[in-house]
């Protein structure tokens, strides 16, 4: 862990600024934009040669609702902040931060307009099918709001807002935010890795960094850490989130926990460090037309749920898990939703498929028999409550897809799971980092995956870019105002 540096140890500073933002992903950009608009001078430090980070490599979904203009344009005029809160508080739990979720839901419509003002464009159409990522530019998508049990908790309304890009759209969001930072006069210092916080007593007054092997020092009246999570730090995973050890990583390679460790080194609180999200490379368009079974041949969740939720459930199942389809189900998947994936095994009978997959004899036969009995008798799924529109009796011939095969086919690769961390520095509603000893750490803020924000043990796509920008903005505003108050 990097130790802090005392102000008395710094002979002179290379740069001085009001607000120093460490990390130029979505949270850092949002903090910089609002700090500049509030009148503060801003420098962003970015360890790589350009802005974006993991945000730019993400799907680009923004979890927004409460009655946005895009929702209304797509025919969904019945959403509001209370309805959104009912869904998110359940979907992001257990142990979600309800106070932060409430604030986020109340400010969601305004956040959507903020993105549009920054230049993020949205196509006014809905992608109305289960998927990880629409193969179209449709601006709105479902993220599990219409699946059990959430459709009984809140009115089902789609809230996945997507930039006008096919496939992964994080780059489009970051391009707009970075351009806004530039237009407002926020400086970005690339190829510069922050190393340690600088303290004057208990107050954070800057950062030491390294650029091309040279030491660089920054004096700041406020520091905002937006350095990402710690999935790329094997030791931190072993210490805090060992469930992700051995699995793939959803990151740009720089989510090494450095910002979290800098905060911990000066006595900052951490929160929810064991909470993670994992994605299982099973295609939702296949899963909902068949079933997802574990290594014992048993179903364990309604297959039409948001794929991040069936992934998280699969992570804790005896594995490997398999997607089981009949020929009719496979043929019904739209070609654009196949992502180049082909069945790993095919068989005329379930007994043959069980043998191929190494499942207990009779297990898959019993699972399919129970599923088909209910599908035939009532057209329902009383065990896991899959929506009736996906339910029909399954008949051979049979196929099994191994989600450990990477999208597009090829050889088996890894475990099929890729994840990231949700825990980080504990913050208040304005992004101020909390101290182990009580109160806040003077001069220090955090947002994005470097902080523990809304999430409990659940996750929904779009809530990283969403809460990263929302609470990044609040951190930038509060930091700028604190600077002005100190100078008054």
Summarize the structure in short.
The protein is an alpha/beta fold and 488 residues long.
Describe the structure.
The protein has 488 residues and is an alpha/beta fold. Helix content is 31%, strand content 21%. The strands form 5 sheets. Strands 1, 2, 3, 8, 9, 10, 11, 21 and 22 form a 9-stranded mixed β-sheet that branches. Strands 4-7-6-5 form a 4-stranded mixed β-sheet. It has a 4-stranded antiparallel β-sheet with strand order 15-16-18-17. This is FAD-binding protein. InterPro entries: FAD-dep_OxRdtase_2_FAD-bd, FAD-oxidoreductase_2, FAD/NAD-bd_sf, Succ_DH/fumarate_Rdtase_cat_sf.
Quaternary structure classification: single chain
Number-wise, the strands total 23
Rg, nearest Å: 24 Å
Overall geometry comes to elongated
Q: Strand content of the residues, in percent? A: 15-25%
Protein name: FAD-binding protein
Keywords: FAD, Flavoprotein, Oxidoreductase
Cofactor: FAD
List the helices and strands and how they pair.
Layout: E1 5-6, E2 15-22, H1 26-37, E3 42-45, H2 53-56, E4 62-63, H3 69-73, H4 81-91, H5 98-106, H6 108-117, E5 123-127, E6 138-141, H7 150-153, E7 160-161, H8 170-184, E8 187-189, E9 192-200, E10 203-211, E11 214-225, H9 234-240, E12 248-249, H10 258-264, E13 270-271, E14 276-280, H11 284-287, E15 291-293, H12 307-315, E16 322-326, H13 327-332, E17 345-347, H14 350-357, H15 363-377, E18 398-401, E19 417-421, E20 424-426, E21 432-434, E22 440-446, E23 451-452, H16 463-487
Parallel strand pairs: 1-9, 2-3, 2-11, 3-8, 5-6, 11-22, 12-19, 20-23
Antiparallel strand pairs: 4-7, 6-7, 9-10, 10-11, 13-20, 14-19, 15-16, 16-18, 17-18, 21-22
Helix pairs in contact: 1-8, 1-16, 4-5
Pfam family, one: FAD_binding_2
Keywords: FAD, Flavoprotein, Oxidoreductase
Domain FAD-dependent oxidoreductase 2 FAD-binding: 18-464
């Amino acid at each position: 862990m990097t130790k802090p540096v005392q102000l008395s140890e710094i002979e002179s500073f290379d740069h001085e600024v009001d607000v120093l933002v460490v990390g130029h992903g979505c949270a850092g950009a949002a903090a910089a934009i609002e700090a500049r608009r509030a009148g503060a001078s801003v420098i962003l430090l970015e360890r790589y040669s350009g802005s974006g980070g993991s945000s730019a490599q993400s799907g680009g979904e923004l979890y927004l609702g409460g009655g946005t203009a895009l929702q209304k344009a797509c025919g969904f005029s019945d959403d509001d902040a209370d309805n959104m809160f009912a869904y998110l508080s359940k979907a992001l739990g257990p142990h979600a931060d309800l106070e932060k979720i409430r604030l986020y839901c109340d400010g969601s419509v305004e956040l959507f307009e903020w993105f549009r003002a920054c230049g993020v464009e949205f196509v006014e159409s809905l992608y109305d099918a289960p998927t990880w990522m629409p193969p179209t530019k449709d601006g709105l998508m479902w993220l599990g709001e219409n699946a059990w049990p959430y459709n009984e908790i809140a009115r089902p309304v789609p809230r996945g807002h997507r930039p006008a890009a096919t496939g992964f759209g994080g780059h489009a969001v970051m391009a707009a935010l970075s351009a806004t930072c530039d237009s407002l006069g926020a400086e970005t210092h690339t190829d510069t890795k922050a190393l340690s916080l600088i303290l004057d007593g208990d107050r954070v007054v800057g950062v030491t960094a390294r650029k091309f092997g040279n030491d660089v020092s920054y004096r700041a009246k406020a520091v905002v850490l937006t350095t990402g999570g710690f999935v790329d730090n094997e030791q931190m995973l072993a210490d805090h989130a060992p469930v992700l050890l051995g699995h793939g990583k959803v990151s740009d390679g720089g989510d090494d926990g450095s910002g979290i460790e800098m905060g911990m080194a000066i006595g900052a609180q951490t929160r929810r460090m064991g909470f993670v999200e994992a994605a299982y490379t099973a295609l939702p368009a296949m899963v909902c037309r068949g079933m997802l079974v574990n290594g014992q041949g048993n179903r364990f969740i309604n297959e039409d749920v948001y794929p991040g939720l069936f992934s998280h459930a699969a992570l804790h199942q005896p594995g490997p898990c398999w997607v089981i389809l009949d020929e009719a189900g496979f043929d019904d998947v739209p070609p654009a939703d196949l992502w180049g994936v082909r069945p790993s095994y095919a068989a005329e009978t379930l007994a043959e498929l069980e043998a191929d997959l190494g499942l207990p004899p009779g297990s898959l036969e019993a699972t399919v028999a129970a599923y088909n009995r209910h599908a035939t008798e009532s057209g329902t799924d009383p065990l896991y409550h899959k929506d009736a529109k996906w339910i029909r009796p399954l008949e051979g011939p049979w196929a099994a897809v191994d989600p450990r095969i990477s999208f597009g086919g090829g050889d088996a690769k890894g475990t099929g799971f890729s994840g990231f961390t949700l825990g980080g520095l504990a913050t208040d509603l304005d992004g101020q980092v909390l101290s182990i000893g009580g109160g806040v750490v003077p001069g220090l803020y955090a947002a994005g995956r470097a902080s523990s924000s809304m999430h409990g043990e659940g996750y929904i796509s779009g809530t990283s870019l969403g809460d990263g920008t929302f609470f990044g903005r609040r951190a930038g505003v509060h930091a700028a105002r604190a600077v002005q108050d100190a100078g008054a």
